[in-house]
Design brief:
Length: 111
């Protein structure tokens, strides 16, 4: 791993909101608005956090219509390690469960 990329990854992981975003995206894809609903921060602040995670290669955003759908880059080794930490962290484990429930829930638009 190149030093510059490693620095970006460590900087991205050095923030509680970004760790929570990774937990929310661990099993489900979410729009920025859906992520914002879970935080008490301004949308520009959330956008900055998403940009840092995306720049580090930990998440990716795909534009679908007028929304950007964010998802975790599962093949990134840091995300694999973070997934393990989510299982043992008392703060982030419930967020991972919420992500799993969201991923397995039937799509409300199909009902």
């Amino acid at each position: 791993m190149r030093t510059v990329q490693a620095a970006k990854i460590f900087a991205a992981m050095a923030s509680e909101p970004r760790l929570k975003i990774l937990a929310y995206l661990s099993k489900a894809t979410m729009t920025a608005g859906e992520i914002a609903d879970r935080f008490d921060m301004t949308k520009p602040s959330l956008s900055k956090h998403l940009g840092i995670l995306e720049n580090a290669g930990l998440i990716t955003g795909v534009k679908v219509g007028k929304y950007i759908h964010y998802s975790i880059v599962e093949t990134h080794i840091v995300n694999a390690l973070d997934g393990y930490l989510q299982e043992v962290c008392p703060t982030r484990k419930p967020l991972r469960r919420e992500s799993e429930a969201r991923a397995t829930a039937p799509d409300a638009s199909e009902a």
